[in-house]
Design brief:
Blueprint (H helix, E strand, L loop, with lengths): L16 E5 L4 H12 L3 E6 L2 H13 L4 E5 L5 H14 L5 E4 L23 H28 L3 E6 L12 H21 L4 E7 L9 H9 L12 H8 L10 E3 H7 L5 H4 L4
Parallel strand pairs: 1-2, 1-4, 2-3, 4-5, 5-6, 6-7
Helix pairs in contact: 1-2, 1-7, 3-4, 4-5
Length: 273
């Protein structure tokens, strides 16, 4: 049932180590804690230490080892430092989830969910590309040796509808997510010989609904659907168990996957206020 992620006794991620970026809230936190409940040791990374420390505590409560590391995934030295800490603490990495991302309202023109191209600044463009595309590139580059040392594993890039279709007013976001899809498919071909699966996963519509205006909009317009972050956990668990001999180079939409696998659809997973 939606919200119940109990697995069979095999604990498919038992003995594995997973790293999730942007794991302080929303999708990243849901995936990290879901992986912990399924048996994985967890490394959580974010620029906001307090949030990922809470995620790590929840992973500890599930009986798993957890490490919270404050870092900016767009900075090579930060990512290299994280890789060194993971190597020293765990000695391996089996699963990498590139979730950290900037949305349009987090760019220089705060609280604006759309920005016309004529109003975009170079700083807006660079901010989106640096976190949403450069960040996954740097993480894969630095963590690849650890994943290979583990004998293979899974890389999951968290994408969005903006990676499959253009959207007016969201040029830098869409460009970064289209680039992430290209990175995913290209590396799936290159990494198959390393026994590493590379896939992308997008939610459909989702929100952690911390924005009061969005919550009010949902109350007033019930046909608007926001999906809960927890909907990403079952398909993420599926992808986490893949390697170079399984599903790779694929893009999975969480809502469609859940429905196809009998785990509910839009109504079961929607946010209700």
């Amino acid at each position: 049932m939606p919200g119940d992620f109990s697995r069979d006794e095999s604990m498919q991620l038992n003995g594995k180590t997973a790293l999730v970026t942007g794991a302080g809230r929303g999708i990243g936190k849901a995936i990290a804690t879901g992986f912990a409940r399924d048996g994985a040791d967890i490394v959580v990374v974010s620029r906001t230490l307090g949030e990922i420390e809470e995620t790590a505590r929840e992973a500890n409560a599930a009986g798993r080892r957890a490490l919270a590391i404050q870092a900016d995934v767009s900075q090579p030295n930060d990512v290299r430092r994280v890789a060194d800490e993971v190597a020293n603490r765990f000695g391996r990495l089996d699963i990498l989830v590139n979730n950290a991302a900037l949305r349009m309202n987090q760019l220089g023109q705060k609280n604006s969910y759309t920005i016309p191209f004529t109003a975009l600044t170079v700083e807006d463009w660079d901010s989106a590309i640096n976190v949403n595309l450069r960040g996954p590139f740097l993480c894969i580059k630095e963590f690849l040796p650890l994943i290979r040392k583990s004998g293979g594993g899974s890389i999951i890039n968290i994408s969005a509808g903006g990676g499959k279709r253009g959207m007016a007013g969201r040029v830098p976001y869409c460009a970064s997510k289209f680039g992430l899809e290209g990175l995913t498919q290209s590396l799936a071909l290159e990494f198959q010989s390393f026994n590493i699966a590379v896939n992308s996963l997008s939610p459909g519509k989702h929100s952690i609904l911390t924005d009061p205006a969005k919550r009010q909009q949902l109350k007033e317009t019930p046909e608007i659907v926001f999906m809960r972050p927890e909907m990403m956990v079952p398909p993420a668990l599926f992808l986490a168990t893949q390697d170079g001999h399984g599903a790779t180079g694929q893009h999975i939409e969480a809502l469609k996957w859940l429905s196809q696998n009998g785990l509910g659809g839009r109504e079961e997973w929607r946010v209700r206020v």
